[in-house]
Amino acid sequence: MNFVQDSPHESTDNVSVIFIMTIDPTKISTSITPYAMIDDHTAIPSEEEILFTMHTVFRVDKMKKPAENSRLWEVQLTITDDNDPQLSTLTNRINKEIDGRGWQRMGKLMLKVGHFDQAEELYNELLDNASTDSDRAFIYHMLGTMKYHQGKYQEAVIFFENSLKIYRKTPLEDDASLGCSYGAIGLTYNNMSEYSKALEFYEKANQIFEKAMPLNPPTLAASYNNIGLAYNNLGEYSKALEFYEKANQIFEKVLPPNHPDSATSYNNIGALYKIMGEYSKALEFYEKTLKIREISLPPNHPSLAGSYNNIGGVYKSMGEYSKALEFYEKSHQILEISLPSAHPDLASSYNCIGGVYDNMGEYSKALGFYEKGLEITKISLPENHPNLATSYNNIGVVYCNIGVVYCNIGDYSKALEYYEKSLKIREIALPPTHPLLASTHNNIGVVYDNMGDYSKALEYYEKSYKIYEKTLPSTHPLFAGSHLNFAAFYEKSGDSAAALKALQDAYKIQQETFEEGNTAFSFTFIWFGKVYRGLKEYAKTLDFFEKCLTIEKRTLPEKHPYLASTYSNIGDVHRLMGDYERALAFHQKALNIQENVNSNSLECATTYMNLGETSREMKDYTTALTYYQKG
After folding, report:
1. Which family does it belong to (predicted)?
2. In the chain, what are the domain boundaries?
3. pLDDT reported for residue 145
């Protein structure tokens, strides 16, 4: 054990891994999986070595990092063999999928386990020696598959089209190989965000599969899955769910429960439920996916990273930011190991981590991650790709939030600059009713709102709301966000009745979607408090501000500017209710934060003025004058 613990000391980049193997002779057949104790025959008998046969298989039971050593991982393994029903079923299925002759089969296996560089080297060698059109078509297809997994989508399309040209020479227009080529081209266009083109190729593939392969349900199911994916990306969620469920029904009938394709099906349904705001259902399907992938894939496979990322996304939407960050970081660690440094999925991972820090109010960290994501996206994708729009949008969000907190008009201008870049790309690349367009309109509205240009803010809020009405269920959390924006607009315009109506609409949706105490409620409670303060209903005002404070104290860093703002609001209500001692205490709490962080100078000045006003009403004129002068 000592040499394992000491081995990484030469490099801080290394960690040790010790595999702890459990052998239960009653659970395996020694004739199928023989092993031998060889301590009497080795140079170091004290090591008590065991010799295993080459085809020995172990289950991975658990991986953990001992608390006393941060640079050592323990992996608990249990020996198994062909009599294990789960292993046997999965192996038989994968053997059928990795068909073909000799080296072709080896190439498929390389792709299956994510060894893309080795697969490319092998297929290029096979292409140089190919003697028939059939072999060349197959190899072009597999090279396209390899480029697809590397994120080199333009190159992938070229290889797939080379394969398609050869397959089209066949007199059988319903040949299954032709369907596979159409499907692969569709999948690649989907990842290039050309969703209408993707759907066109998916439907061509599906027509062939329904004629040529009615007795091959997994291929048909994969085809339904792809069509569902295209509809999902086009924002047509009911159609997407219809095709995803068709696929899932087939997979559940014909595949073993731990098959990777079942995982893909569950993953797609989970993604759809997340978009529709049904987070508990999304989490249920994502966890089914993760369970299968942890059993069936190597520990550093990109698909496993995808599962961690998706679960992180649901927790982020639910306001559970520490859990979200935990899963996003698990995902990112795998992607850094398994993908090229300029892969689009790495950019997406940086964006996800940035998004959590953004929501936690750690804007400098958020901006750092977003800019890393943007740098990769600019290198790896075309200039009008929607992922580039997402990067611009994310940076716009950060600048907007910095603007909110620090009241810096320069930051609002930067936010607007990035949002408009995002909008320009999304208007080209997406259908006019896509929810991402609505999101960008909404964000531009928020910037104009914070700059005090309320008529422009309302114009963009309404554009966003009209898109949501066409594409999302009425209980989706994004509707709650729209209602909150309308409430803020009406409150600033002095229309308290309209503001309350919008707040009640938002609150009703949030109650149906989130658990009590979720961070989503904090902004709703703040605006309820502000409206009731304007109506001079101070008891209700105080109740809502205190509800907001309870959530913020649980979810935000103790020096977060939002906490200072809430303390200040509570202090102001106590002053209006004549409770000056409490008012002073809360204003002082606000000031303690504002004087010790790089905070909004206007809010800090407002707190000084509130302290001055409270001191004046207490007839402490000297103190009041001091605070007024500071303000």
Report:
1. Belongs to the kinesin light chain family.
2. 2-83, 435-630
3. 85
